[in-house]
Amino acid sequence: GIAERFSNALMRHIAATFEVEEAPILAALSSSSPGARRLFEARAKISTRLDCNCSRLFTGLIYTDDGAGGAVGADRMIRLAQRILEVCLKFNVSVAHAKCHLGQLFIWLGI
Asked: What is the tens place of the pLDDT at every residue in 28-42?
């Protein structure tokens, strides 16, 4: 319905705004070492093939009014939360107190 389309539009706006903010940070990160450069070059190729940004270090999804997201690193998560708050204020969207929280999750990807 209309609420879901509005929610999805807000998430796209947040992602687009945050990608612009992240661009110089990711450029510096990708040039920090040969390994990082190879990683971001590989992600760029995949992004072209899939027609999406596979170099993002954040994500966000929403179904009507149930949102979920994440970011790599505490600093990035704080900046993402700030952008979400700014967008909510800009579009006069209030978030239920029960849904207004941050947490942490660690996924082990190696030895």
From this structure: 999 999 999 999 999
